[in-house]
Amino acid sequence: MSTGMSHLFAAEWLKVRTLRSFRACAVAAVVLAIAGAALAGAAYTDPVFAEGLTARDAATDVISWSSGVLQIPVLVLAVLVLGSEYSGGAIRVTFVAVPRRLRVIAAKALVVAVVAALLATLSLGLGYAAAFPLLSRAALTDVPFGTVLSLLGGEIGYCVLVGLFAYAVTLLVRNTAAGVAITLGVLLLLRLMLAVLDIWVRFDLTGLAFSAAASQLMTDPFSRALPVVVVWLAVPALLGALAVVRRDA
């Protein structure tokens, strides 16, 4: 990272961490991740539910549940990184200070990725730790440490992709409420809609959903999910960057 870019990243990071909404999202992320993991872990204390399942299955479910609820505060935070400046008009000051707008866009994207990674690492780690005693009661803790790290790493990567997608959408719509609504719709509703359409067209449309493709990409980087994720990220990012460069702030 060049000196100018590192200074710009530091400035954008300062803006984000001084937002009151940032602290609220960070707290919500940790609380929701722990709650999701504990809820999944508690289910395994029922012998009937846990019958036939392995310790790896339990660890996968706990971390997946934790990540599933964590993605909501992560996407909200990613939207706020840019949306808060547009809603308050501060983006004009930013572009006056740094006329090269693409550098600002890149610095904010880097902040989103770093914050999402750090927040997911902390939240998912605490979530698994909270669920561990519950899994221990069910004798489902015999999972190699490397496997746990691999599962955590996959979900951390997924949260980073969610954050970047939310940021790209906000870059295009330049509105906080619209950014949150569109991203939530794509993540939570589109996959369900495509699953229903699968029945009618008899073709795997679910894999075209961003959430499904991003999850698969974390387990199989060279699968057909890669181009799907690239398209979902690139289209709003490129159109949004073009709009930011050409239009007034």
Low-pLDDT segments, ≥5 res: none
Number of separate helices = 10
Based on DSSP secondary structure assignment, what is the total number of beta strands?
0
The helix/strand class is: mainly alpha
Percentage of helical residues?
A: over 70%
Biggest sheet, in brief?
none
Determine the mean pLDDT.
90
* Helix and strand run: HHHHHHHHHH
Apparent shape: globular
N→C terminal distance: 26 Å
**Rounded Rg:** 19 Å
Strand proportion, as a percent range, falls in: under 5%
What does this structure look like?
This protein has 249 residues and is an all-alpha fold. Helix content is 84%, strand content 0%. It has ten helices and no strands. It has helices at residues 3-17, 20-43, 47-50, 55-88, 90-97, 101-137, 145-173, 176-201, 210-219, 225-246. Helix 2 (20-43) packs parallel to helix 6 and helix 6 packs antiparallel against helix 7 (145-173). The longest helix is centred in the middle third of the chain and has 37 residues, at 101-137. The chain is globular, with a radius of gyration of 19 Å. The chain starts with a helix and ends with a helix.
Provide a concise account of the structure shown.
With 249 residues, the protein is an all-alpha fold.
